[in-house]
Specification:
Elements: E1 2-5, H1 20-28, E2 32-36, H2 47-53, E3 56-58, H3 61-67, E4 70-72, H4 79-82, E5 90-93, H5 101-110, E6 113-116, H6 131-148, E7 170-174, H7 178-189, E8 193-198, H8 201-210, E9 215-219, H9 222-229, E10 234-237, E11 263-266, E12 287-290, E13 293-296, H10 306-327, H11 329-335, H12 337-340, E14 343-346, E15 349-350, H13 353-359
Parallel strand pairs: 1-2, 1-4, 2-3, 4-5, 5-6, 7-8, 7-10, 8-9, 10-11, 11-13
Antiparallel strand pairs: 6-14, 12-13, 14-15
């Protein structure tokens, strides 16, 4: 199979869809890999690294799309890429269709085969291709939140860990999934007082078992959320419903109950966000303020640490890339139920029902 790796062109996105190690594995099996020139530079690999691994370097993104049977990316195609995508071409990447109607309609029009990293799901409900980026984003949420609590960037002027004689900051984590656990771990490591809310008692028991005593858990409901936002310095939203829009847990009116300079970080922004006032931002202009509350809502947060993120992501995507290349998408998905869950769209037909529900569509094709 011919596999294409275009350079990511979303704002401040420095990750790349494949490492030289992945290119080598595909090349050894006789597959042809085309990579756009300089695609890997942001993550630490130059064209020579890919060439030495067996890739053919192409100068432009349109040539990569034109020559490839399958495109392996990190982020969803953006408008400049829509017309480059061909009928029956496999696009293997993060899509987050439920929060982007324009993208959904464009991919339907292209009649491509869209396999979304974020909905590849194991029989146990695990999300193997989303997990590593959730781990990165959860840890970064605290790192960035701590920065934006500083007064020069309009935060409360709080040091999360405190110092002797001064109490630590308070962190509220919404969701005890991968993002929430990693965020709680980082915040606890800094010495903050951490509260984790979730509706899944099994997850709360796990958090309670593995975290230190200054991480406490409570059941998530509106009453408890409203109680904690009044005193929290940093609030992290990490709630996920696989492939669907995130639930809105903090409404606009709740901002008035927060202390001026409170920082909220919405890690669910790719899925529409779990705060009503969320709007996607970029690393170039990451934060904005509403009602004296600092919002950090960068849609590709792991893109700020591209080497770590690329290696973590491709560690888990490569086995599926190899299966798709060796077997073709139909046989690969028939053979692997986990991969089949990632099949969101084929030939203009939506196969993943949460996308239809997100837009109120009744049919699988419009």
């Amino acid at each position: 199979m011919k596999i294409g790796i275009p350079k990511e062109i979303k704002n401040n996105e420095s990750r790349v869809g494949m490492t030289p190690a992945g290119v080598l594995e595909l090349s050894k099996l006789g597959h042809k890999v085309f990579i756009q020139s300089t695609a890997g530079e942001g993550s630490g690999w130059d064209d020579e690294d890919y060439h030495a691994a067996g890739a053919t370097i192409l100068p432009t993104i349109d040539r990569v799309y034109d020559k490839s049977d399958m495109i392996v990316k990190v982020k969803e195609p953006i408008e400049q890429e829509y017309d480059l995508i061909k009928e029956d071409q496999i696009i293997f990447t993060y899509f987050h269709f439920a929060s982007n109607k324009q993208l959904t309609e464009a991919m339907m029009k292209s009649k491509s085969v869209c396999i979304a990293y974020e909905t590849v799901e194991g029989e146990d409900g695990s999300l193997p291709l989303l997990t590593p980026m959730s781990e990165v984003a959860g840890r970064m949420a605290v790192q960035q939140g701590a920065k934006y609590l500083e007064k020069p960037v309009k935060g409360r002027g709080i040091l999360l860990g405190g110092v002797p004689g001064v109490p630590p900051g308070k962190v509220l984590v919404l969701g005890a999934g991968t993002v929430g656990i990693q965020a709680a771990k980082m915040a606890a490591g800094l010495g903050a007082q951490v509260t984790v809310l979730d509706i899944d008692m099994k997850k709360l028991r796990y958090v309670n078992d593995v975290m230190p005593p200054h991480v406490v858990t409570e059941f998530s409901n509106e009453y408890n959320i409203r109680k904690h936002i009044k005193t929290s310095d940093l609030i992290i939203g990490g709630v996920l419903i696989t492939g669907a829009k995130a639930p809105r847990l903090i409404t606009r009116d709740m901002l008035k109950e927060m202390q001026p300079g409170t920082v909220i970080v919405d890690v669910a922004v790719d899925q529409g966000g779990c705060f009503e006032t969320t709007r996607p931002t970029t690393h170039e202009d990451p934060a904005y303020i509403i009602d004296d509350v600092v919002h950090y809502c960068v849609a590709n947060m792991p893109g700020a640490v591209p080497y770590t993120s690329t290696v973590a992501l491709t560690n888990v995507t490569l086995p599926y890339v190899l299966k798709l290349a060796n077997m073709g998408w139909e046989d690969a998905c028939a053979d692997d139920k986990t991969l089949a869950k990632g099949l969101n769209m084929v030939g203009g037909k939506i196969l993943f029902s949460p996308i239809l529900e997100a837009f109120g569509w009744k049919e699988a094709m419009i």
